């Protein structure tokens, strides 16, 4: 090799008189603000001119692929230049030529034979080739300058080779500096991007804001950008994208599907610079030829992906993959925090909503149970449902079992009200269907249902929710919700109104039972009065009739005895009048109205004591002031208990004790009579009905009644009711 080099250096060469000043001047023009391509093109152009080479081209090592790619080409036709640029040479190719056998100084001179291994045969190059390595810091091979000599016989002066090598060394240094400057600029831009993104994300916990700012920053850096998140259904959905890729928003990918699905499963970034050659890794954007997808990781789990794409191949490098991964690492935490915050907010709103609903339900329960008068309570309940839950329209129907009709008892809302007392047969309409089936019905658009009963007042109705009020297996009524909007009600609304219906079911059933109890009490009172009239007043009137007939007969036969008969008639009529007044007093004693419970009981006890010859003692403990609605039921309970004692107990002494505390009123009636076995009495027995009447009255007041009786010893009635200061009288 040394002999060959010496022979080459001493050989007379027409190119030995090259203008070396031009080559030296070229070195002074190399600047780091040029791109590597433009810088090397200038080098190749000058070498081609001063060496009279038919072709000079430069191959530079790609930092991402490590392959040698043609970046500058001078002295050949455009199609040949395109062929060179298309041809990529692996690093190992040059290892076969950069050996001492071909070395000339730091360069390597190749005979024509191995040219085909260096450049394509289609170029038909016959001359020798001088390969000048471009070495960066640490002698790393970063590129090669190929100088094709005019003919195979041409040689090159060693001094010229030294100058060329000096220039290429400067060019290599400049390329390294340019690349270093570009890398520094990219690193600075990356740091600035990440810093700006960090500032954007640190100021908010709103997920939509975080996603929007993230894709905006990605779009600025890559010209493209979208973000997909893993949903509860196990699919990935693109939920944010830059402005010109908004058509991607809403696309879904299953795990393992396409490039996004694969990255989500594998948890590793993926780069494709030619998506057409990878059908199993379809990009998120069908138009993209190049694509990068990186995972969003939180706690070691994939929560989504960041995606960028370009519509031309070879658009991205691994350095850009690193940048996108850095962005993903920075935004994963804020996204997770925003999701947790949103879940916490949703939970707090749900808890508050439940609390508000419970407050409304509690109010409805108080209103419903506060009065047995439905004409007052049910409209208030309906208004509370509509206002408390914010429904557009609420109607409340009760069933008239005698006519098999639904009767509108209350209506509240923004839709036109139905006429007062509106009735609808159970066989008609959607509410009739709900009543017949005994189950809740929901219609997103009720007008499309065949059973829909179109009313002129409700032309605006669209969505409808109907919930039956059921007690003891019987449908007592319906709660009907209507809205002018479709799909206005949810399953949660159905459950909520079903709870309201359960509350009302007990109230409506209690009203029915109360009315039945009232009817039974009225009937019992009538029967009692009939018995009293028969036992006393009727017999006295009959006696008066007989006395008056006898007086008339004596008037003709024995006038002296008429006066005696008239005197007896007057006594009997006076007794009948007194008996009638006593019965009227029992119905509604004036003392109860004017002086209260204690005074009325004292008068009643005194009257019974005089009339029946029985000792009745009344004891009062505590403050006797009561709400008026308690006085009459308690009076009736004591009255019924004393009547039972007089009729059935054969007692000589009765104690009545009234005890008033801050919370309760206790009434205890004790006698020393014969006692009885309550379980052995038939249902129709008067005393048994009296006991039932007392117990029902106590229950209506929210209290209890206990009965204790022992044969031969006596009976005790104990009634305890809550003390209510203010309550409307039914």
What is the straight-line distance between the termini?
126 Å
Q: What average pLDDT do the residues reach? A: 81
How many strands appear in the DSSP assignment? 24
Helices, by number, come to 18
Computed Rg? 54 Å
Shape summary: rod-shaped
Strand content: 15-25%
Structural class: alpha+beta
Oligomer: single chain
Major sheet attributes: 7 strands, antiparallel
In spatial order, strands of the major sheet run 3-2-1-7-6-5-4
pLDDT < 50 stretches:
1-18, 683-687, 725-730
How helical, in percent, are the residues?
A: 40-55%
Describe the structure concisely for a colleague.
The protein has 730 residues and is of the alpha+beta class.
Can you walk me through this structure?
- This protein has 730 residues and is of the alpha+beta class.
- The protein has 18 helices and 24 strands.
- The strands form four sheets. The protein has a seven-stranded antiparallel β-sheet with strand order 3-2-1-7-6-5-4. It has a six-stranded antiparallel β-sheet with strand order 10-9-8-13-12-11, sandwiched between helices.
- A hairpin with a 2-residue loop joins strand 4 and strand 5.
- Helix 2 runs antiparallel to helix 3, helix 7 (158-202) packs antiparallel against helix 8 (207-222) and helix 10 runs parallel beside helix 13 (491-557).
- The longest helix is centred in the C-terminal third of the chain and has 67 residues, at 491-557.
- The protein is rod-shaped and about 190 Å long.
- It starts with a helix and ends in an 8-residue tail after the last strand.
- Residues 1-18, 683-687 and 725-730 have low confidence and may be disordered.
